[in-house]
Amino acid sequence: MACPVQFLCRGIRTVGLVLLYYAFSIGITFYNKWLMKGFHYPLFMTLVHLTINFCLSALTRRAMQCWTGKPRVILSWTDYLHKVAPTALATALDIGLSNWSFLFITISLYTMTKSSAVLFILFFSLVFKLEEPNPYLVVVVLLISSGLFMFTFESTQFNLQGFSMVLLASFIGGIRWTLTQVLMQKAELGLQNPIDTLYHLQPLMFVGLFPLFLYNEGLSLSTSEKLFRVTELSPLLYSLITLSIGGILAFGLGFSEFLLVCRTSSLTLSIAGIFKEVCILVLAAALMGDRMNMINWLGFAVCLCGISLHVGLKTYYSKNKGPSLRQLNSKSPELELPLLRQNGDDSAAEFNDEDEEQEITLH
């Protein structure tokens, strides 16, 4: 009876972690879209989220240090500015432009266009020689590109400005996740744990995004009665609370992804991400009034086929490769695993949740 009970417990745990990931991922997508209807300062909102993420990651690092008794890694200024800054800048622009696009496009168009990030991740992985050339990748690219074209074809709610923003964000996202993979693979930096990576990225992300915020929103926000020219306390508190909730959701999303990968595998995260996009589109049509015709839905299905093929290929080839990063005992109190998101949300290190030492391959 031990095996069936253990299998049942593992299944319940996996379902619970997937639902937790869905709650944060779907929640922050709809929450940010709802917030942008009345608060037209997406870059300021992103800066607030970065600040909250930094504070929460610092508290998490402190808790981990107290729990394990081991000091957390702190980079030197030279490594910090030369090796972390490019990743931080790309991440800041990806998130900033993604949030900015919510002012112009629907959730369904945002979700579909963000799926094209897989194409750019593949491209930059080939450029940085993190991915080996494979003829099947051509099929993946054609399926995702065709699906994106069909989804935007004759769309009644298409907005060129918002589409261009989120497409640019997807392009920068390809750079972002490729640089993140390179950063986390550098064993000498010691940033294999996503919490440590998050902690080091946030300040430089804030500095990188702040000039764009000043140029685009600084003057308008300084004269807005929602914040700096507020005449009553209640609107100010309302704005701060709603922005803080978004920051907590953003941190919860990253942490839930980390837990899902640690306790299951990157394949579980990738498959959950595919079904998550289906859920977002169905909810967007039901709750937000997003309109999609048959060609749009067919394009979405074609795109999902491309993404599914990509996930399957990554799983197949990873099983035939040796470990590229390091060995880890799954009973380690820290579970220091690299996390690489895919699809707007994202792809990770593959491993099993067994008791013996596992081999980890970073994709």
From TrEMBL:
Keywords: Membrane, Transmembrane, Transmembrane helix. Residues 15-309 form the Sugar phosphate transporter domain. InterPro entries: Sugar_P_trans_dom, TPT_transporter. It is a multi-pass membrane protein. It is found in: Membrane. The chain crosses the membrane at residues 12-32, 38-59, 103-128, 135-153, 159-177, 198-216, 236-255, 267-288, 294-317. GO terms for cellular component: membrane. It comes from the Eukaryota. Residues 344-363 are annotated as: Disordered. Residues 347-363 have a biased composition (Acidic residues). This is Sugar phosphate transporter domain-containing protein. Coiled coil: none annotated. PANTHER family: SOLUTE CARRIER FAMILY 35.
